[in-house]
Amino acid sequence: MNKIIPFTKFRFIMFVVSICLLVGFGAGTYLQNGFNSGIDFAGGWNIQVQFAPVAFTIDYTGEKVYEITILDNKLTLYDVLGDIKKQAGEPLNFNNYNTIADLALELERIVPGISVSITDRYRDVSPLKIISKDKNLPLNANEGILVHVPVQTSDESFTSIDSVREALSPLGNISVQSIGDNPLAQMYILKAKEDDLISSENTNSDDSSETNRVEEVEGRIKEYLANKFESRTILIKKSEFVGPSFSQELRLGALGSVIVAIVLILVYITIRFKIGYALAAITALIHDVFIMIGVIGTLQLELTSATLAAVLTIIGYSLNDTIVVFDRIRENSSLLRDQDREMIINTSITQSLSRTLITSLTTLLAVVSIYIFSTGVIKDFAFNLIIGIVVGTYSSIFIASPILLGWQNAASQRKKAKQEAANAAVIKKKSSVKVQNEPTKTQKTVEPTTSNDSENTEENIEQDTLQKKTRKKKKKKKKK
């Protein structure tokens, strides 16, 4: 590779950028009074409402008791005898009828006493347009069953999300979200805390069953919506309730799953690489998660189980990108031994840059397409993934690798300081030993004498004495 991009040169600038992002998104979340927790984590009600005109009404004047289920483009009739329900004949498959009028004739034929009143403008509409209901509808002489179809044309009377919010405003803090971008769909999701939709006398009542609570909530919703809209057009398709204890378990489970994932990743990278690589990767992952959560809190996106799924997905994506870079760093550490650490890391990032960008861009193309063409929870999930992919790619280049460089430099300095201390200790020890072995100035060395040495000394003394006598005799002779 001809040109090495000096990524680590900008590491301190990028550290400052990351700190500013974390502080900024944290402050944004705080100013928004915390996260916008969904029903999964905050508890409360999740009700799906659709405004749809009545296509036809089913009335019954007979003595038997029937229930009707409209689901999956089929109408099924049940004969009820006490607590026993028995299917009455084959289900009426909507695919077998061209118009609602044809379906009505067949229903009147198979059950004596049933009469169907069709709204004229929907007589020729296909039965496949009929809106499903996921619960049994009792058929008796007191009340007819309303069967709805979506708004067909824009000239029909339809609602707006602002008018729905206005109608429900007396109930308190109720979140209203539209489903789909088509205004003709007329579908909304209502989210509220338990206390906002349950009357005070039943809030702490242990006697009220779940069925009674659901009926009460649906009744209150219909009551307030009926004050502004025609009651026959209000269709409550689904009601869900999550209690506070269950939502707390979900929150703890979500937090626990993220912590367990990070710990297992730490163990895996430590085994595959070294502790320095593991700490750098975990720091980058925590950085990605906090920025992603900060964006969600600042923009007040709903924090749900789908958000947790997005966080875990990004943890895996970011880790994979970081591992590719780390693997190249480990390989180049053996091939480029003569180069310094900073050059090795810059070379490794540059070599894997094309792979990182291609992977990130192709993934972004798919996720952005999902974000553009989807709605509701899937749209929020895709947006969270977009944020995570961008931040994960950034952190693998400018956060994880520079942290690894800092760790290696610090480890090298610690090793060098330790070696210098060991060398100093050895030198000091040698000096002390040398000083102990050298004699002091006042100390005289006394060599031990053996018996042979003493005999030689006596002989030398005798010879000296003879030589002195000989010299004296010669002197006397000279004088004479």
Name the descriptors.
480 residues, alpha+beta, Multidrug efflux transporter AcrB transmembrane fold, five-stranded antiparallel β-sheet, four-stranded antiparallel β-sheet, 14 strands, 15% strand, rod-shaped
What would you say this structure looks like, in words?
Helix 9 (275-298) packs antiparallel against helix 12 (376-437) and helix 10 runs antiparallel to helix 11. It is rod-shaped and about 180 Å long. The longest helix is centred in the last third of the chain and has 62 residues, at 376-437. With 480 residues, the chain is an alpha+beta fold. It has 2 domains: 7-41 and 246-414, Multidrug efflux transporter AcrB transmembrane domain (Multidrug efflux transporter AcrB transmembrane fold); 52-159 and 180-187 and 214-236, no CATH class. Helices cover 58% and strands 15% of the residues. The strands form 4 sheets. Strands 4, 5, 6, 7 and 9 form a 5-stranded antiparallel β-sheet that branches. Strands 11-12-2-13 form a 4-stranded antiparallel β-sheet. Strands 8-3-10 form a 3-stranded antiparallel β-sheet, covered by helices on one side.
- CATH fold title of the largest domain: Multidrug efflux transporter AcrB transmembrane fold
Strand segment count: 14
Low-confidence segments: none
- Span between N and C termini? 112 Å
- Which architecture name of the largest domain does CATH use? Up-down Bundle
What structural category do the secondary elements indicate? alpha+beta
Describe the oligomeric state of these chains in a short phrase.
single chain
- Per DSSP, the total helix count is 13
- Rounded radius of gyration (Å): 45 Å
CATH class of the largest domain: Mainly Alpha
* Helical fraction: 55-70%
Give the SSE order as H and E letters. Answer: HEHEEEEEEHEEEHEEHHHEHHEHHHH
